[in-house]
Structure to design on (411 residues):
């Protein structure tokens, strides 16, 4: 049973403070869980408690003074009960009292501690007896938006290694494309422009979407991967939407929502686009539906649209807004609620994308979460920077040890 939960501050990949929780059992077994942190957050996300000075002391206090006493003596394997206690203790709609950073760090630490106490890999503990599969990675190799210093409005340009027999081959192909992209940028703009964005992607001095798409496509072709590796984008469109004027400010111009639909349809017709996340601002459920019906082969995906919250996913299902969902545990604040959201998506044949945040730690838990739940995809940045590679390397470790099926072939 749980002896205590300790919260403390650690540093994330952007140099900000974030929360780590450590669960210790009576037996002495213990494990930690970290809260990641977003930059382009959805407005409906659970609240990350942050003090005025930028610290997370308030969230750490939530763990030490409220959560720890409430969980003392409980069986660590009772994840559902533990998460429910934290939800009730918080008592708000959006975890604004305890802080979702406090509750998610604790929730993850609880799951990891339970898996150790049972002698199970975390993915096995999460997924139970079902046969596990390895998700297809969405690798963000070119960064824009709030994650980079350039003028690109689209936040992420991804490569998706599909036609490979193993995850290892898929990741090696992706590293090749990543390095080819770096060479292309060096040739065209100079080495000084190969600086990395927050998620490890290169952030060249571009301002127009088309130029970024061309670069990534060329990197795929030059690496000999055309036809095996596809492209994806996360527009994170709420961040360049002007609500007063009702327009999107992109590519040095303003586009109406209808013009944005044509913009994406055109891109999908000229590039091997498989995945498109948050193409519109987070309230425009009906434009998502319209776009998805126009580009049926592309997995239009909701991140800020749903914020890992079943309430908004139900609306999205009703309106047929998206064929895909982003699953970010810290958007909702507990693992139990995250898995409920995941299951609702699966039950409705919606593709799942277990995802990191732009502010991350070296905790590789989401790799186990993705495998444990048999997620279709995992989104965890470029194949560089330790907080991104920790997830890829954990997936490689799982594949190496357990030889699970790579889902790329089934797509
Ligand atoms: P965030 O962005 O973690 O900065 O919110 C990631 C995303 O939009 O997918
Ligand atoms: Zn997103």
């Amino acid at each position: 049973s749980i002896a205590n939960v300790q919260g403390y501050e650690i540093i994330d990949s952007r140099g900000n403070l974030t929360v780590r929780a450590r669960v210790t059992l009576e037996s002495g077994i213990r494990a930690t869980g970290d809260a990641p942190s977003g930059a382009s957050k959805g407005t409906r996300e659970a609240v990350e408690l942050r003090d005025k000075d930028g610290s997370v002391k308030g969230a750490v206090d939530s763990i030490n003074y409220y959560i720890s006493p409430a969980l003392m003596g409980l069986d660590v394997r009772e994840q559902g009960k533990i998460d429910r206690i934290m939800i009730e203790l918080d008592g708000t709609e959006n975890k604004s009292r305890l802080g979702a950073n406090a509750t998610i760090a604790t929730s993850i630490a609880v799951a990891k501690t339970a898996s150790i106490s049972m002698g199970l890999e975390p993915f096995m503990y999460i997924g139970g007896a079902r046969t596990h599969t390895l998700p297809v990675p969405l690798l963000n190799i070119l960064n824009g938006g709030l994650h980079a210093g350039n003028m690109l409005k689209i936040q992420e340009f991804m490569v998706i290694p599909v036609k490979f027999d193993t995850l290892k081959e898929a990741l090696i192909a992706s590293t090749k494309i990543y390095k080819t992209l770096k060479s292309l940028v060096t040739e065209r703009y100079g080495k000084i422009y190969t600086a990395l964005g927050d998620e490890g992607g290169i952030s060249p001095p571009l301002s127009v979407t088309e130029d970024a798409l061309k670069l990534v496509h060329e990197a795929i072709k030059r690496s000999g991967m055309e036809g095996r590796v596809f492209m994806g984008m996360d527009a994170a469109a709420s961040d360049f939407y002007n609500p007063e004027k009702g327009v999107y400010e992109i590519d040095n111009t303003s586009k109406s929502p209808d013009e944005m639909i044509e913009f994406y349809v055109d891109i999908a017709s000229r590039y091997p686009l498989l995945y498109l996340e948050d193409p519109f601002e987070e309230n425009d459920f009906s434009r998502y539906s319209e776009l998805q019906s126009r580009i049926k082969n592309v997995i239009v995906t909701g991140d800020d649209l749903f914020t890992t919250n079943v309430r908004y996913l139900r609306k999205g299902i009703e309106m047929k807004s998206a064929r895909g969902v982003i699953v970010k545990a810290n958007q909702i604040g507990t693992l139990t609620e995250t898995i409920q959201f995941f299951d609702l998506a699966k039950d409705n044949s919606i593709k799942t994308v277990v995802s990191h945040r732009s502010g991350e730690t070296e905790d590789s838990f989401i790799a186990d979460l993705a495998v444990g739940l048999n997620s279709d995809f995992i989104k965890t940045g470029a194949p560089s920077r330790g907080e991104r590679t920790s997830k890829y390397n954990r997936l490689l470790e799982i594949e190496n040890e357990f030889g699970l099926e790579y889902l790329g072939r089934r797509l």
In short: Residues 38-41, 234, 236, 303, 355, 357-358 surround 2-phosphoglycolic acid (ligand 1) (CB under 6 Å). DSSP finds 13 helices and 16 strands in the chain. Residues 167-189 form the longest helix (23 residues). Residues 247 and 256 are 5 Å apart (CA to CA).
